[in-house]
Amino acid sequence: MKKIAYETRPINLLTEENKTVEYKKIQPFGAVPALIDVNTNGHILVESVAILEYLDETRPEFPLLPKDPVDRATVRALVQAIAMDIQPVQSMRVIKYIGKEKESQWLHHFLVEGFNAFERMLQKTAGKYSFGDSITMADLVLVPQFYNGVRYGVDMTAFPILFRVNSTLEKIPEFKAAHPTQQPDCPVEERVEHVC
């Protein structure tokens, strides 16, 4: 959306490349993503939401947060609902800890619970997109989370607003290009022609 030039350096989580000493110098938790901004002498930023906010503040064209403070806080609440409530329970670190035998039940339970809550939030905020009729930061975090729901076998049609917003977003070229299945580090078995 912001047309920012970047270079991708994939970190393979399946081979635990994120746990190497070299990578932990960049991201102490060994999580992804990390951003090294060459425009600031290589300053390293970590955590998805912090990176999104930094990019939005330093590249103000096509703002991803509304100007109105209440609207901005509402979009941030949508972002945090995904980043803090839904996504963490499905991180590789958590899944490894709970074990393969409980993985499916665990993921299904917490994803459905999270998507139900997010659907209730969207009932108050959604227009064409997650918040009204402009693309916001909430939409950027929604699409990969929706993909995880599909990936883990959740019936996403049970969340009609979320489903509609995601379908609308996935038709936008920038969202198609950023889709998890289109990333260079996507496992081959998941690399499919993604169609809405």
Automatic annotation (TrEMBL):
Protein name: Maleylacetoacetate isomerase
One annotated GO biological process: glutathione metabolic process
Xref: Pfam families: GST_C_3 (PF14497), GST_N (PF02798)
PANTHER family referenced in this protein's UniProt entry, alphabetically: MALEYLACETOACETATE ISOMERASE (PTHR42673)
Residue ranges annotated for the GST N-terminal domain, each copy included: 1-63
MF terms (GO), sorted A to Z: glutathione transferase activity; maleylacetoacetate isomerase activity
Family: Belongs to the GST superfamily. Zeta family.
Keywords (A to Z) from UniProt: Isomerase
